[in-house]
């Protein structure tokens, strides 16, 4: 077997992306000149590096387990990845194994009693399991949407119709028609192209952010090619927004629908005029890549960065109107509560902080997660929402495999949701605030009761889950995954 340094670099780059280390991946890609290699990333399957390492590990174990005559198969205690590259350990295992008798695997008699939480095969590649008295959603109740040629980082429902948008590493976004009157889901492919030599060619860059405007007539996308784009529901390109120098990490419409806000690796945030596609104002207050943005009002917003700072800025004001400092590692996400009074932030420092424009330091410093907190979401409940009689809560998703629900008024964790077994990348509240969907790299989407914290439904897909989202009626959950799949769970069928 022979391989080039370009091939190794590309697999490491893709692994960093798939593991959620987008900023590390970008830096590694620049330093290793990934863009100058002739590797077609769209053809490389997800988890390729892990797959080749696993195969290498299995080959090493096979070498140890086969006797000197090449025929006898012996059971070998699994090697760790580090053990497998240490010649002394491999030789020692080989010597020990030659002294052991051959062991045959006998099937275990379960007497038909598998108990709670046991996984049993069902249709396709899915599994079905009983969890807290609820049965996992079978494959027959999910609609799997195939078409993307690489991992799907993000998905979002149109706010007025059952159109689901998705963004992928294959340099496309897609719009899927999931309405009931559509017998089979149609897909519109939104190809992200750039001008090269007078012609349009695929950008070959990831589409990692997208957002619908408030009335569902336009979709904005952000790409690693440095451009934001506006599309119609018919899949036509309406505008190309080009001012960022490098990848765009986040992108949001304001409620009125006249401005789009974006954050980029170039350390800046930009307010765009949605009608003209022109840059209205560019803000250069961060000293490192800007990771997330969120509107407070139609003209003011907050931004966060790997520089550990949070700035609140306003249109036509040439400096931040408020800055918050207190995190000790990069700030991954920020979200204003429904009324725009409280700002929540989460960080690689494993803390969740709540800020108010009335205070210079955080109102709450919530420390319960044991690993990085990747994202946060406020419930659509409390004063000023469509669910005014329900308490406002905040959900946090962490690489420690848990989701936590917080009573922000008291600053306490009210539920810890612990069924996931891998990092949780996404959470989303149902429109009525009664349920929370969570998606993890364990390939599972779980749906929880926000009142009791109990698991209500569970579905296991075929790839690690990057994003989950609810449609406007709250009867469908969409999800996007690392293996290029997008799927929709129709909760009316359960």
UniProtKB/TrEMBL annotation:
Name any one GO molecular function. transcription corepressor activity
Biased region (Basic and acidic residues) positions are 103-116
Give its localization: Nucleus
UniProt main location, coarse: nucleus
Cellular component, GO, one term: histone deacetylase complex
Q: Repeat WD: residue ranges? A: 145-179, 207-231, 241-282, 324-365, 366-416, 417-458
* One protein family per Pfam: WD40
Keywords assigned by UniProt, alphabetized: Nucleus, Repeat, Ubl conjugation pathway, WD repeat
Spans annotated as Disordered? 93-116
Q: Which InterPro entries match?
A: Ebi-like, LisH, Quinoprotein_ADH-like_sf, WD40/YVTN_repeat-like_dom_sf, WD40_PAC1, WD40_repeat_CS, WD40_rpt
Q: For this entry, list what GO says about its biological process.
A: regulation of transcription by RNA polymerase II
Family statement:
Belongs to the WD repeat EBI family.
User: What is the designated name of this protein?
Assistant: F-box-like/WD repeat-containing protein TBL1XR1
- Organism listed in the record: Rhynocoris fuscipes
């Amino acid at each position: 077997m022979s391989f080039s340094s370009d091939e190794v670099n590309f697999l490491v780059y893709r692994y960093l992306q798939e593991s959620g280390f987008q900023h590390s991946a970008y830096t590694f890609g620049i330093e290793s000149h990934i863009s100058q290699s002739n590797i077609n990333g769209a053809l490389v399957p997800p988890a390729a590096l892990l797959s080749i390492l696993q195969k290498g590990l299995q080959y090493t174990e096979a070498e140890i387990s086969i006797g000197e005559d090449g025929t006898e198969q012996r059971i070998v205690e699994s090697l760790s990845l580090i053990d497998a590259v240490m010649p002394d350990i491999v030789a020692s295992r080989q010597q020990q194994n030659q002294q052991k008798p051959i062991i045959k695997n006998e099937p275990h008699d379960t007497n038909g009693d598998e108990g709670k939480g046991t996984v049993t095969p069902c249709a396709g590649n899915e599994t079905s399991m009983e969890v807290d008295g609820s049965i996992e959603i079978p494959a027959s109740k999910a609609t799997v949407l195939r078409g993307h040629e690489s991992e799907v980082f993000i998905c979002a429902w149109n706010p007025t119709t059952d159109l689901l948008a998705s963004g992928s590493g294959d340099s496309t976004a897609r719009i899927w028609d999931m309405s009931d009157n559509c017998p089979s889901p149609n897909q519109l492919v939104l190809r992200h192209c750039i001008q090269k030599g007078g012609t349009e060619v695929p950008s070959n860059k990831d589409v990692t952010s997208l957002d619908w405007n408030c009335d569902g007539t336009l979709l904005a996308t952000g790409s690693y090619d440095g451009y934001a784009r506006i599309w119609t529901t018919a899949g036509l390109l309406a505008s190309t927004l080009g001012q960022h120098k490098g990848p765009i990490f986040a992108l949001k419409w304001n409620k009125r629908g006249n401005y789009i806000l974006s954050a980029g690796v170039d350390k800046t945030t930009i307010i765009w005029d949605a009608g003209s596609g022109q840059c209205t104002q560019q803000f250069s207050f961060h000293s490192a890549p800007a990771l997330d943005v969120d509107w407070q009002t139609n003209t003011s917003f907050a931004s966060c960065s790997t520089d550990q700072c949070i700035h609140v800025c306003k249109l036509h004001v040439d400096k931040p109107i408020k800055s918050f400092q207190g995190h000790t590692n990069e700030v991954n996400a920020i979200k204003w509560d429904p009324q725009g009074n409280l700002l929540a932030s989460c960080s690689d420092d494993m803390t969740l902080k709540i800020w108010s424009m009335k205070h210079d330091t955080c109102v709450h410093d919530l420390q319960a997660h044991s690993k990085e907190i990747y994202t946060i979401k406020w419930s659509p409940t409390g004063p000023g929402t469509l669910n005014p009689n329900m308490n406002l809560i905040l959900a946090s998703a962490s690489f420690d495999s848990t989701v936590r629900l917080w009573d922000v008024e008291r600053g306490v964790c009210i539920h810890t949701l612990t069924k996931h077994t891998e990092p949780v990348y996404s959470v989303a509240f149902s429109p009525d605030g009664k349920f929370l969907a969570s998606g993890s790299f364990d390939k599972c989407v779980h749906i929880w009761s926000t009142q009791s914290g109990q698991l209500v439904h569970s579905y296991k897909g075929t790839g690690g889950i990057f994003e989950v989202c609810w449609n406007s009626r709250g009867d469908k959950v969409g999800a996007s995954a690392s293996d290029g799949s997008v799927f929709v769970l129709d909760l009316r069928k359960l």
